Amino acid sequence: MSVTLPTDVAEMLEFLATNQGITQNEALRKAIATEAYFQKEIKQGSTVLIMNSDKSVKEVVFR
User: Fold this and answer.
1) Please, are residues 49 and 60 in contact by the beta-carbon 8 Å criterion?
2) Each residue of 2-43: pLDDT tens digit?
């Protein structure tokens, strides 16, 4: 499979890979797996939340 990414998305992928010390292929695989996990949970009625360092909680809304 070959994928052509817009520059901004390619830069995000490079950031993810570099930040985690992995290849861009592995970063893409992890991003897809994470998205699939969240979508399955949301479909089952779950809510995705993030707790900030100040203990405030925010809902993550996927579009």
Assistant:
1) yes
2) 999 999 999 999 999 999 999 999 999 999 999 999 999 999
Q: Copy the structure tokens of residue 52.
A: 């900030």
Q: How far apart are CA 11 and CA 20, in angstroms?
A: 14
Q: Provide the pLDDT for residue 63.
A: 84
Rounded CA separation 59/49 (Å) = 4
Q: For residue 51, what is the DSSP state?
A: E
Q: Taking Cα atoms as reference points, which of 57, 55, 3 lies closest to residue 31?
A: 3
Residue appearing with tokens 């897809």: 32
DSSP 1-63: ------HHHHHHHHHHHHHHT--HHHHHHHHHHHHHHHHHHHHTT---EEE-TTS-EEE----
